[in-house]
Amino acid sequence: MTHISEAISNIDFLFEGFTQGSQAELTSIQVESILELFQEFGITEKIELIRHLKAITGISQTVLRDQLIVIKRSRSTFQVLQAGPVSSQRTVVALYPNAPVNTLAQMPGTQLPSGIKPIFINRIIKGLAASNIAEQIEIVFENLDGTWSSLLVKRSVFIDAKKFSATIADVGYQGLYDEEGKSTINRLIPFLVKYEHHNALIQGAISKSETCLTLGYTDTKLSRYIYNGIKGFDIVAPGEQEQVMLEGYKQHGRPQDASKFVQDILALFADYPIPTVMFLTGFAAKILPIIGCDSFMLEVANSTGTGKSLGQYAALAIDGDPKKLKLQWSSSYANIEPLAAFFKNHVFVLEDGQNQLEKSIISDVIYNYFNEQGKGKSYNTGSTRKTRVLQGIILSSAESQSVDLLNRDGITRRLMTVNQAPFGNVETAKAKGKAYEKIVKKYHGIAGPVFINFVMENRQDWDQWKEQYQQLKAVYDQQASAQDIGHMDKERIAFMNGYLSALHFTAMLVEQCFDVIVNTTAVMEGFATAVYGNMVGKSPAIKAITEFVDYVSMNQTKHFTFGNANQEQKGAITKEYIAVFPAALKEFLSKGDYNVTTVLEGWSKMGIIMKAKNGKTTQKTSMQSYIINSGSKDKTVKTDYPYMYRLDTKAIEKELSTSNCEDDPINEATQKGDFASSQGRSMPTFLRNDTGAVIESIS
């Protein structure tokens, strides 16, 4: 028996949004539901319910009782049966074999109310109050030609006779009027209410699903992972673009074929570490939050036709149809962010980075993806949109690597780049592409669900997985420190080792899940070599000092010597160091889109910035400057400047000579003029102490 407090709670739900005085009487659905509750109680409880109804509706007790009496009398239209064990004679499909409802669903009576054409409830989709998503009911009905149609209606429409009749009429329902031309709506809605209440007692008779606004993990506890096609969940795409891509997350093939799909792709990519790892990102994106690895971007940069897209498509085929899931870098940030947020904890593919002319967009995407949140957006009302959560792996392709465009603090540490051709040459890539098309035509979208089910079923091992991931990372850190790979940003390589370890551990899980051989050690060794090889000399500090030396070399007479009355003097050069005003140096770095603090800290660690005795990075420097002495001959004067950076020329030469110079952007004119041969890269003559080509301008 229903408790009185539960009955009151149910009534509150029925009258949610009800405004006193907005209507003279209750809707039939409300009265009918109240009557169902009244049958369970004695006179005392009924009086309490009437009083509660009066309080929330403003309708007098007398009117309420009268309406209840009227509706009670009309119940003779129905032959109500109590819900009990399922009887095949009472199931909907026994009477209407083609009805698209569960075979357990029962009729609440022996037949439909008079004048009503077959119409039933098949599914209820729960709403999300926090996101203003209304509960929806899937109505199915029989057409005049014997076929069946369905539509989703909000709960608020379902209980409103006028709105509900208009809604189902618009989609072709023919049972709104009986043979005498009288409206059936006052019989139709109560019937559907009885149908819902009756079948609520039969598990599975009316399927129920939860509303989800994104794919991937639904909470911070990682309690469940949503993918398109998962039972019990209804995915609501927030926009048209998301809906189009969501339709690409479809399964083609049987779940038991997933191992064959994975095995065929691995065999196709055998002996090619880069495309193999690109394929693995589709699995890795699903376990990053479990093992404690941050989101990141893997970019493969090489010329057209070398197989970059093939690796991307293979990763997408894990979860759906690759042709419908790819996205171009040429899109605006406003298009990229909501899609990335919606397809959370999946691999997110962006093609052709060279077509994105706004490097700030690439920078923002990487930065926000790594920080796992999108940009906040204010509305005209002053309110702020809820920040989107971004999680997963961006798999990017480009003809030229984005890292060369990005100097923003920390961005390059979010970006793992390889610039080798995935399959070595165009011919091999073409042959692999043809073979891949045959595989994906048979299977796509089946490996992802199988893998995530494996992951969720092994929740008890997650703590152990975290430990194994950390152990792998320690091994990568140790191996990297033991190799002589030249100077690189030590913090950045630590980030890369975290990503490499995540991919390595993913390969191990893939072997367990699908009973295949990834050849993990060889694949990851080859891939790590490609990653490390592309990192040499790529730290922001090294790039900045390279560009600054080039700038000084080309502007010696303009900005770094006295004697030029038409140009601002920004510093000067000696055999021991380059002196530069802090404001001038910060202006140069800022224009280059560098984070000034990061670069200066890097230079300090390298010993490039000479420190004063008190440990400060700027110190007093005497420098000759050219001035115009009004009324007399122009002359130079020696001036003491309390704050100047001194950049050690020997330390600069050491760092530049050990850096990989192949990709250094050295100005062609500078190379022909002021640069001479040195170790590893061309060096400005003012950095070579044996040349004597120095302006003695600082004491």
TrEMBL record:
<dbReference type="InterPro" id="IPR009270">
    <property type="entry name" value="DUF927"/>
</dbReference>
<protein>
    <recommendedName>
        <fullName>DUF927 domain-containing protein</fullName>
    </recommendedName>
</protein>
<dbReference type="InterPro" id="IPR040538">
    <property type="entry name" value="Cch_HTH"/>
</dbReference>
<feature type="domain" description="DUF927">
    <location>
        <begin position="118"/>
        <end position="387"/>
    </location>
</feature>
<dbReference type="Pfam" id="PF18662">
    <property type="entry name" value="HTH_56"/>
</dbReference>
<feature type="region of interest" description="Disordered">
    <location>
        <begin position="660"/>
        <end position="683"/>
    </location>
</feature>
<feature type="domain" description="Cch helix turn helix">
    <location>
        <begin position="543"/>
        <end position="627"/>
    </location>
</feature>
<dbReference type="Pfam" id="PF06048">
    <property type="entry name" value="DUF927"/>
</dbReference>
